[in-house]
Write a structure and sequence with these properties.
With about 140 residues, this protein is α+β, with helices and mostly antiparallel strands. It has one domain: Roll (Nuclear Transport Factor 2, Chain: A). The chain contains 4 helices and 6 strands. A 6-stranded mixed β-sheet has the order 2-1-6-5-4-3. The longest helix has 16 residues. It is globular, with a radius of gyration of 15 Å. The termini are far apart.
């Protein structure tokens, strides 16, 4: 488990260090077919979902108050996790942006169409399996 956390940290560092040119060129990448299959399973099977989350999961709770964070960080615990169902983006107040950072990292932003609120998730592929490696609940955002 510690090796997985170290690998996630290294991957996050690599992702954060990418230049804007690399990030913009990755936008043209296709979402892998195996990711979309994983994504459907992730939102339809609670056991599958729990098995594909790297707990403790770094992120932020919804409407996070920076004063409540320990050292500016927050970790979701397995026992506190609530099953995330799929959103029907056609009929909801949300839209989704899936952005492949590279062949094994996909960042998802779910934006509220009327309010400046967003959910952010990062999925990482380890071997043949996709895993949720970062999750921020619904929080304010800016386009700055």
């Amino acid at each position: 488990m510690k090796q997985l956390l170290v690998l996630c940290s290294v991957l996050s560092l690599i992702w954060a260090c990418q230049s804007n040119d690399q990030a913009s060129s990755s936008k043209s990448q296709e979402i892998p077919e195996d990711f979309m299959l994983f994504y459907r399973n992730f939102h339809s099977d609670s056991i599958f979902q729990i098995e594909h989350i790297n707990f403790p999961l770094e992120g932020l709770p919804s409407y996070a108050d920076p004063n409540d964070l320990v050292d500016g960080k927050f970790y979701w615990q397995k026992e506190d996790w609530t099953f995330q169902k799929s959103i029907d983006f056609e009929f909801s107040d949300f839209e989704r942006i899936l952005m492949p950072i590279n062949a094994f990292i996909i960042e998802e932003t779910i934006l509220h169409k009327k309010e400046k609120l967003a959910i952010r998730r990062k999925f990482v592929k380890f071997g043949d399996d996709w895993t949720l490696a970062y999750y921020t609940g619904l929080n304010p955002y800016s386009l700055d």
